[in-house]
Amino acid sequence: xxxxxxxxGLLATATPSxxxxxxxxxxxxxxxxxxxxxxxxxxxxxxxxxxxxETAARAQRWLTALAATTDRKVVQRLIALxxxxxxxxxxxxxxxxxxxxxxxxxxxxxxxxxxxxxxxxTVIATTSLVPLELYHLARxxxxxxxxxxxxxxxxxxYLVYALRRHHIRRAAEQRDP
Length: 177
Known about the structure:
177 residues
């Protein structure tokens, strides 16, 4: 094994230290973002597939059959939502879902890799959506809506904490080189 050699007047070259261990909470948040992205891709593909009349008719038959065996109110709302949209609205829904899926994927990759820009992006994007989630929650309290608001506020709180911790550590390193 060779050791760094020093010549008079030169400092020994340090061996590179191991990279810091990944932040497990950031990894969990990244997985959450990936799951949301996958769900939105499914929504987008479903919305765009409903533009095909044959697919729309098949979905309507499937939902009608489902209504016979489950809670009719829920199924009726799904039919009204999915099949009552115009082709333009279905395209907009599909495009919007793909855009948000792209955003969530970028956030997820950046968080998984421990990038600070991803923490900032996620704080900004997630915080901007909380008022919309609160609006939907005010229109009707459901467990999924409560969970979405609580999870997103927890994500923002943790990321703000992590960013502050990073800035404090950086400032300390600059003071004590």
